[in-house]
Amino acid sequence: MASPSLTIFRGFPTTAAYCWSPFATKLEARLRFAGLSYKKDIGAPPKGPRGKIPYLFVEEKNGASETVADSNLISEKLVANGMAEDLNAKLTPAEKAQDMAVRALLEDKVYFYQTYERWEQNYYTLRPVILGSLPYPVQVLVGSLAYRKMSATLYGQGTGRFSPEEISKFKTDVWENVNALLASSRQKKGSDGIFYVLGGNAPTEADTTLFGFIASCLVCDAAPEGRKIIRSLPAVMEYAENIHRQYFPDYKHWE
Hints:
The chain has helices at residues 22-33, 71-80, 93-121, 123-130, 136-157, 164-189, 205-218, 224-231, 234-247, and strands at 5-9, 39-41, 55-59, 65-69. By secondary structure, the protein is an alpha+beta fold.
């Protein structure tokens, strides 16, 4: 059966380069781990089924099409439709719980620390990039509204209630622990070359998330502190370099 055409709408230019969205890079990693080819388009959150980036347009050879949003739901859809193997199928129950814990740590903790750094601390670096397609006066208006909404979200979620110094410590603690986990997984693998976050011989869903958060931060000019933290951690950088070489050789490197 002919494979359907896949197009990722990631909210950023379609060049062969990583973008600032950790979830868009996560989705690209998921497709590449499955060996699926895809096209990229810019798109916009209001155009997506759930009002956010990324989303995936799937077009069958018979003309039928579907747009799916949310990186986790997209992965589940690909598996259910037989387009991709379940990356976690061979994990033990304990490993599945660990995989989910890594993803939750990044998506429910680090995401908000990164959002705080980008929106609260580096807003004027962020705005022209995420709103670059708009005329400058519109950027100012839309950016102001988006900033207020994001500040309210961060306060309601809890991150915005802490001081910049406390958030910086939270962020550093997470990445240092991720570095320790990766160092352990590298040792468990017992050989040079690529290794994965749980120490197995193949990537799991946690690897899609982890690489998405690392790569998107390394290329983000609105996250200088996060980038500095990540660059200081040898196991994290080795992990990212290996995945870049293995799965994204066509992409511009973050340096």
